[in-house]
Amino acid sequence: MEYFPVVALKLLAFVDPTKRLSNIYLKAYSFINYALVCGVGVFINMIILLNLAKIFPLYLANVCAIFVAWIWNWSFTVGPLGYIMGLSPKKRKEEQT
After folding, report:
1. What is the per-residue DSSP string for 33-93?
2. Is the pLDDT of residue 21 over 90?
3. What is the DSSP string of 11-28?
4. Structure confidence by residue, pLDDT tens digits, 27-82
5. pTM for the whole thing?
6. 10 with 4: CB under 8 angstroms?
7. How far apart are CA 14 and CA 10, in angstroms?
8. Angle, in degrees to the nearest 10, between helices 29-52 and 4-15
9. 1: confidence class by pLDDT, cuts 50, 70, 90
10. How far apart (Å, rounded) are the C-alpha atoms in residues 22 and 40?
11. Assign residue 16 a region: left if phi > 0, alpha if psi is -120 to 50, beta otherwise?
């Protein structure tokens, strides 16, 4: 599996052969990737909130939606999956002797 910045650069090179978009992306890729992760977090929050509000009281549905979106945002920025978006280094497993 390729990391998101590599995939994004390939797509941008396909769309814009002059590589202007690729240069813009490279200058601000951490900000753009962070905005993408948080944007997906907002979308997740709204989907969960709208579905849980049919079952639970609004405050409880909102708390659940915020928690799930918070877990998503944390894990794909500074958490264990942050390396996929290029926002944190991949943690290496240490060998036990």
Report:
1. HHHHHHHHHHHHHHHHHHHHTTTS-HHHHHHHHHHHHHHHHHHHHTSTTTTTTTSSPPPPP
2. no
3. HHHHH-TT-HHHHHHHHS
4. 888 899 999 999 999 999 999 999 999 999 999 999 999 999 999 999 999 999 88
5. 0.79
6. no
7. 6
8. 110
9. very low
10. 22
11. beta
Query: Tokens representing 76?
Result: 């794909």
Q: Give me the residue label for tokens 């079952």.
A: 55
Look up residue 32 and give its two tokens.
């753009």
Q: Residue 95 corresponds to which amino acid?
A: E
Task: Name the token pair of 41.
Answer: 């977090």
The CA distance from 36 to 1, in Å, is 19
Q: Which two three-digit tokens encode residue 3?
A: 């990391």
